[in-house]
Amino acid sequence: MLKNQGQNKRMLFIAGVLTGIAMVVIYMTNRAVPFMMDDLWYGTKLYEETPITSLADIWDSQIWHYLNWGGRSITHTILQLTLLLGETAADILNVVVLVLLAYVICMLAGYRKLTAHLGAVSLLIGCNANWKMSMFWQSGAANYLYITLPSLLFLYCYLRCLDEEEKKPLPGILFWMLPLGLIAGWSNENMGPSVWLVTLGVIILRKKGKKHIPVWMILGNAASLIGSIMMIAAPGNFVRSDEAAANDYGLLWQLFLRGYAESKAALEYLFPVLLILGGLILCAKGVLGIKLGRKNIFLLLCALISWGAMVLSPHYPDRAAFGTMALLVCVILSLAKEIVGKRKETAWYLFGGLFFLWLRAMYVLGEFLAVSWGWIL
Questions:
Q1: Which pLDDT score, from 0 to 100, does residue 1 have?
Q2: For residue 51, which phi and psi values (nearest 5 degrees)?
Q3: Which range, of 31-35, 223-227, 344-348, averages the lowest pLDDT?
Q4: What pLDDT score was predicted for residue 25?
Q5: Which of these, 39, 30, 27, 302, lies nearest to 187 by C-alpha position?
Q6: Domain limits of the chain?
Q7: Using 50, 70 and 90 to split pLDDT, how confident is the model at 3?
Q8: Partner residues linked to 44 by β-bridges
Q9: How far is Cα 324 from Cα 55, in angstroms, rounded to an integer?
Q10: Among 138, 157, 183, 127, which residue's Cα sits nearest to residue 322?
Q11: Is 51 helix (H, G, I), strand (E, B) or coil?
């Protein structure tokens, strides 16, 4: 027992050092990525080149945006708020939101340890198809990093109710579930409908099991549905679609291109995280006989829906895989916890794998910083 305690302390110490280094490197990378491209446009009132200077300006520009450009009102409001605060504040917020997102991932995984948190951060960067455009570019951070946080928190409220042992409701959930559900549903085109469908699945499962369905579950699910409808049915989406150049592709060719985009997302954008997940499933289920459990099945289902939903989009940019990747990271950490719980001697082996993930994350950020500083030509 004393030997295990000593090993755990050493592991936590090393994880603490690696986490400290990671936070410094992540902040420096945020400082090295300036406001650019869409950031410069969203820093204005959109319908004119006047810079935004107040909340009233953001309100006016978002009304115009909803009617003329697109329905991601929540994410672009977040974006304009961070742009209004300035680059230094935005860079600090990006680090804070990443830390919070990693913590919520650990909550969903049921693995709230420093090593798990370090694993979440390392996976989000090291397995990211486009870490710069989904986490450090301010427009990308608002659309993916920031908005994934309420989406996963919304899922957590439902998935914690899948346990055999009924848990007490979270404090005040009846009051804050409505806005949280609305934000989660109004997140982006693939994650919004996905979290709505999965939380609806939890409600149906409880109904079949003849369990009480709390009011907050109904309200939250309804709010997420309303948010998704508001986002997808925005007049600006149709205005923008009409302005887009039409192509001459036939139906079969378009189906082929959509299939290619989905395949590329799975076998290129998401492949590293899927490879790690596959290895852990083989180890947990195939070797140790550990069951996936309802929570992980629902998380995998949500990931599958969020990936498949992009077949409805003519484009599948690599950064759009961020939410799906975050869901898979939840399952990875959950399985890692189960493996360590069943075979304690595997802890250091898994920690060794975590170290290489951390090294990968620090390498890609370090390389970017070296190029930015002129150390690498």
A1: 47
A2: -65, 145
A3: 344-348
A4: 98
A5: 302
A6: 25-239+252-372
A7: low
A8: 51
A9: 32
A10: 127
A11: strand
